[in-house]
Specification:
Distance between the termini: 36 Å
CATH topology: Maltoporin, Chain A
CATH superfamily: TonB-dependent receptor, beta-barrel domain
Helix content: under 10%
Number of strands: 35
CATH class: Mainly Beta
Strand content: over 45%
Largest sheet: 22 strands, antiparallel, barrel
């Protein structure tokens, strides 16, 4: 329905070339922002670990309905999609329980790590910036960050009092799924009091694709189940992925008391998200024929009623308390603390006789607090001490609940130290943590974890350094890995946990090179970022396809097990200034992983890894407008893992353009993003649904943003 022909696309891109970001004068006044993933107030360029920050216009261009889709173009980050409503970040082949998703340095505490069909309770359209730490970050954030961190920073709790009331409003439309979205922010204050409000509403139809939704393999490495071909033919769709429409809304309010020595503030956020699970993946589809047209009207389906499918109805209320105090002391620097409470729930809605029945309900009531104290005596050492406590009360209730309810408690203490001498910079850190998992019935599981890290930087020049990092970290198995036992219908898998699982232990070696001198001219202003890594994970926990089938559900049986694995790879990005207003970027990333032991007749490849990606970008910046053309080549993933299907190579071409202008005295921006210009069939190797739900085809997103 929303196919765009080449001529129309060319006209749209030409028009949108008059559409872009900040003026040159504004860019010159931007201040360097310290990343919060370091408690020692350091800019991203100075952090030894590989850190990327997505903010400003770059974030606005990339922002999408899901976190994984928003970050998919970042080095070392892929998208584990599950239809249009779910997209989780994969960092260097690690995801779910190894990648911690944070909301302003506290866990989002949803259910996204328990299953690939559960969306993260984050709205990227409301983010001020997103920090991505590639590699182990368990030292500061706990064992769930053994593979990396995605920290979504918002402005819900102000740390300063604005001089006047200010805000922004944005409207955008995307032809990929007929999505309409609106966002607003408003902040102000007087005296010592600062306040903040924001909100977002988005609604979309089914995802438009260039061909059939369900991939019809000509050859299978393992024998298909009886009736599978008929099942695929019955629910296959052409030109769209059925039941991928969604509706979401979110709103926040915050209030702070600000003084010369710090601030204390409170915020509340409410998120509601209703999205569909793509057709052909859920066992109850056999019961869906003949659904009433009332379902179409209620949930915005464009297709016939018999194509109504299972939906996820998610709601979360989150409360945050945050404060900082500057001591103004010669030794002690700053005390900061965070306290968050999350009340999360989602229910699986199943179509039946013209209406939706409530199925399994997942809930997570969580508390987390952290306190950090930094010091800097102006001498050899500066550092931080921290304490983190959390409690999660998780439950899955219903006929299809496959995870035993449980309470997980964790307490961790850490210290980080750094010093400089000459051209050398040394970072040291250590963490002790205890994790206790208490199931509703059965024996508790208790794990003691130790983390140690060291990083050494050598500065070849002020803006150029080499780095080497060595990290040892441990991860405790989580409730679903320990206690799962049942059919997970959305994933079409029967999952079995193991209470005998051992904790994971990771040894990660990182070598890097960084050059960035934004004040230089010509080729000296080239921005270079490169790193290679080697990560051996002892007792790696994963759900292995056993090759067996559950008789009742007819699903493949997957069992959680320990198996040593080794991950290694490289990432690089080089941005060259071709002229004062034109730049060329070359980039690429790759990760490979295999199990250390050999099992006769079985593949050693770790499943669902992203393929090798490489490409280039060409960008222009001319006064009030700019544009960027990005071309990415992803190779075929022909090492998909035991009993998994390979994915084909693809080339993705994107073009963005923006124009900055004045509207009634206010700054305004028109923007247009043309995505997947070649209309390629893109199936993510990281996705469980790669054979059922490809990524969107050719599309254009356009909108306007006004600052006042």
């Amino acid at each position: 329905m929303y196919r765009v022909n080449t001529l129309a696309l060319a006209v749209a891109c030409a028009l949108s070339a008059s559409v872009s970001a900040q003026s040159a004068d504004k860019k010159a006044t931007l201040e360097e922002v310290n990343v919060t993933v370091s408690p020692l107030a350091k800019p991203a360029d100075a952090v030894a670990a590989p850190v990327s920050v997505l903010n400003g216009d770059d974030l606005r261009k990339s922002a999408a309905a899901t976190l994984g889709q928003t970050l998919n173009s970042q080095l070392g980050v892929a998208n584990a999609s599950f239809g249009g409503g779910v997209g989780l970040p994969v960092i260097r082949g690690q995801s779910a329980n190894r990648v911690k998703i944070l909301s302003d340095n506290l866990d989002v505490a949803d259910a996204s790590n328990t299953s690939s069909d559960h969306a993260a309770s984050i709205e990227p359209l409301l983010a001020n910036s997103i920090e991505i730490l590639r590699g182990p970050a368990a030292l500061r954030y706990g064992s769930g960050a053994i593979g990396g961190v995605v920290n979504v920073i918002d402005g819900r709790i102000p740390s300063k009092v604005p001089q006047a009331v200010e805000g922004a409003v944005e409207m955008r439309h995307d032809t990929a799924n007929a999505q309409d979205a609106g966002v607003f922010r408003l902040q102000g204050g007087a005296g010592n009091l600062a306040w903040y409000l924001d909100g977002v509403y988005r609604e979309n139809g089914n995802t438009q694709i260039p061909g059939l939704a369900i991939l019809e393999h000509k050859e299978h490495e393992h024998e298909a189940h009886a009736g599978e071909e008929a099942h695929e033919e019955e629910f296959n769709t052409d030109g769209f992925v059925g039941n991928t429409n969604a509706r979401a809304k979110s709103g926040s309010a915050g209030l702070s008391w600000v003084t010369d020595s710090g601030f204390i503030g409170l915020s509340v956020n409410r998120l509601e998200n209703n999205y569909g699970i793509p057709l052909g993946t859920h066992a109850h589809h056999e019961e869906e024929e003949g659904e009433a047209h009332a379902l179409e009207e209620e949930h915005g389906h464009e297709e016939h009623a018999e194509e109504a499918g299972v939906r996820i109805d998610l709601a979360q209320t989150r409360y945050d308390l945050k404060g900082e105090h500057d001591f103004g002391d010669d030794y002690w620097d700053k005390l900061s603390f965070r306290l968050g409470h999350t009340d999360y729930a989602h229910v699986e809605l199943e179509p039946h006789d013209g209406h939706y029945d409530e199925g399994t309900r997942f809930t997570n009531k969580a508390w987390e607090s952290r306190i950090e104290l930094t010091h800097d005596d102006g001498g050899e050492w500066r550092g931080a001490y921290g304490l983190q406590l959390s409690r999660k009360d998780f439950a899955a209730i219903g006929d299809e609940a496959f995870i035993r309810p449980s309470i997980t408690r964790a307490i961790g203490a850490f210290t980080m130290k750094e010093r400089e001498w000459g051209k050398w910079h040394l970072d040291l850190g250590a963490r002790l943590e205890n994790v206790n998992v208490e199931p509703e019935y059965g024996n508790d599981k208790d794990f003691d974890l130790v983390g140690i890290s060291t990083a050494l930087q050598y500065f070849l020049a002020e803006h150029q350094h080499l780095s080497m990092g060595l990290t040892s970290a441990e991860r405790a198995p989580v409730a679903e890995e320990l206690f799962a036992d049942g059919a997970h219908l959305a994933e079409s898998r029967y999952i079995i946990g193991s209470e005998s699982l051992d904790k994971e232990n990771s040894i990660n070696l990182e070598l890097g090179y960084h050059h960035h001198n934004k004040d230089a001219d010509g080729w000296h202003a080239a921005k270079v970022e490169a790193s290679v890594f080697y990560n051996r994970i002892g007792d790696y926990i994963y759900a292995a396809n056993t090759g067996l089938v559950d008789e009742e559900s007819e699903f493949d049986i997957y069992g959680y097990t320990n198996r040593d694995a080794t991950f290694y790879g490289a990432e690089a990005s080089v941005q060259f200034p071709l002229s004062q207003s034109l730049s060329l970027t070359l980039f690429g990333d790759s990760v490979r992983a295999s199990f250390d032991d050999r099992i006769a007749g079985e593949s050693r490849d770790v499943p669902r890894l992203p393929p090798l990606r490489y490409g280039f970008g060409l960008g222009g910046d001319y006064d009030n407008w700019n544009w960027q053309w990005r071309n990415t080549r992803a190779t075929a993933q022909d090492r998909p893992g035991e009993l998994e299907e390979a994915t084909a190579a693809y080339t993705r071409m994107d073009l963005t353009a923006q124009y900055n202008f004045k509207l009634a005295g206010n700054d305004a921006v028109l923007f247009a993003n043309a995505r997947n210009l070649l209309d390629e069939e893109i199936r993510n190797a990281t996705s469980l649904l790669r054979d059922y739900a490809p990524e969107a085809g050719r599309s254009i997103e356009a909108g306007v943003r006004i600052h006042f």
